[in-house]
Amino acid sequence: MTGAFIRLFHREYSGLAGLVLAAAAVGVLFGAFYSPDIVAFFALSLAVIFGSTAGGFFRSSRRLEFLLTRNVTRRAFFLLRWVVGLVPVLIAALLASSCLVFPLSSDLWSFFVESGLTAATLSGPGGWGWLAFCVLSSGWAYTVTFVLVSRTRDESELFIALLLSVAVCASAPAAFWGLGALGVSGGLFPSDSLYSPSSTFWISYYIAAPLLAAVALTVGLRLFERTDV
Amino acid sequence: MTLVLAFIILVGSTLWGVIRAADKWRRVACIFALVLGVASLYTAVARVLDTPIPVAAPEIGKANIDRTDGDVQPSAYSVHLVSGEITPNGERWSFLAIGSVPATRDSGEIVGPTTSAVFERNISKSFFLSRLGIRIYLGWDERGGEFLTVEPVSWSTYIRPFNSYWGIFPRRGDDFAATRLFITGRDVPADGTVLGRRIGSMAFLLVTPVSGDEIILGIDEVFTSLKCTVNPYSGSNNIGSFDEARRLLLRGACFPRSREGILPIIADTGPLFIALLLIGCAAVMVGLNRSLALGLLFGAFYFLISLVGLSSLETDRVLAALRSSQEPNVSAIASTVASPLWRDRSLSFLNDLASDSSSQSRATWANFAISLSPGRISGAAPSNDGEGIEELEPGESPQ
Q1: Which residues of chain B neighbour A38 with C-beta distances below 8 Å?
Q2: Chain B residues near any Cβ of chain A (below 8 Å)
Q3: B323: closest CA among B50, B52, B55?
């Protein structure tokens, strides 16, 4: 059953997944991922786009036939679809954010030119911190969008769900930032830990992001039980 | 090698499209893309090979210059603006007579500071140079010390306000004094070139005593035919020879450095080449139309690899032009030093040129260009090169 599901989703996703991966690879070729904000924007954007695509269960005849002719549980349908959509998001986000740590673009172009076609990388733990932030935040953003969009088939509700998903995506890092600021003012953390992506404070966010995504997925699964597929 | 690789990607992808086409219209589209892509690559290569590299001698303007009579007290000083430019078409020097300054110091008319003069510093004259976007103030302060103040009147990346205090007016018996105003440079996209061309400009003031006796001279002849006031202070803004002025022009053209990174280099690429390479990129995407992602990836790779190949071809042509010209070609030297993609090749070429004993002039210029190359510490300011001049510390009086 799992294999059949993956084949079905692959037929639906392969075009968009290939395009997203190609966009990440072209970004690497052009050295476009030279700063953390660009990478974060790219990773979160593709997470929202992919999350809405995966979560928006449009009613195709092929899918309806598949669901009607097999003994499929909602849980398996929901979770497998989430996993299959998550993979290209994580790969593309990882490819883009690894440019912050490894000089992928410069190493490639050093075969062809002597200088100039280079892109700066972040040194040491800071780069790894940003990598973790971009990859894990994209996973969280994908999950939130997937859960919110999967609840409805109505166009107007889909639009609201998309707006809401963007707000909720930003809520986790923003809430952490607010908590951190309160902690700094209360003397719990040193103030520079708020501005360093590799500080213990932000490492706790990297641990919390997948946990929050798991909670969102569990809630989403319960809501999906009552959704008209 | 890179151009061959680009050609293989272009032909391979479009032929793949022809072979794998599902219907005859797609096959026709792929054949059309193949022809168009090859034609665009051929046009780009032909354009690089056809674009002339400026090797002509610098274009030097002439002006009426006052000749001093050492015994006569000048009543005024005439002021010329001399500007040098490196453009994609070569090197150009021009004169502009901007006015005169009454010789109040020489006639003993300097007065003590008043409330306004404290701030205006007894400015004898101010000039607004709208083309350069600067205002300059010339004169003497209440103690008889000469000064020049330069203020940019509009936003500028490099021109900053500064003052100069010595050697602005010629000393008794000297014919003229030359004071640097600014040097500047940047990359600009040029139609006939693959990568952006380095352009630069510099300007200096030429102050001569008004005597009524005028001769027509070019800027190079001014320094050889007339006597220039020499400033002994280190770090002064004075210019002692035409070669010094040209070296300053080259220094300005090579500073600031080219921006690093792929996107800035593409931003400086000539628009014609961008268009030609995009046609090839589209041809690759048409050839790989069965997978948009693969087409996008290979199209982007073709674009960049062709850009690299064409810029390599262009750099080779600039280096060849530099090797064949006997006289220093400042425009080509600036392109070589500022070459963003082929620094090792350019530096190695300049080292060869510097060690070549057949032309002393070329070797000297090559040595200077090496000192401007990225990662090298720039040489001493040209104004310190005067032989037999004792350097003074601020506060000491010149002899």
Answers
A1: none
A2: 2, 258, 260-263, 265-266, 291-294, 296-297, 300-301, 304-305, 308, 340-345
A3: B55
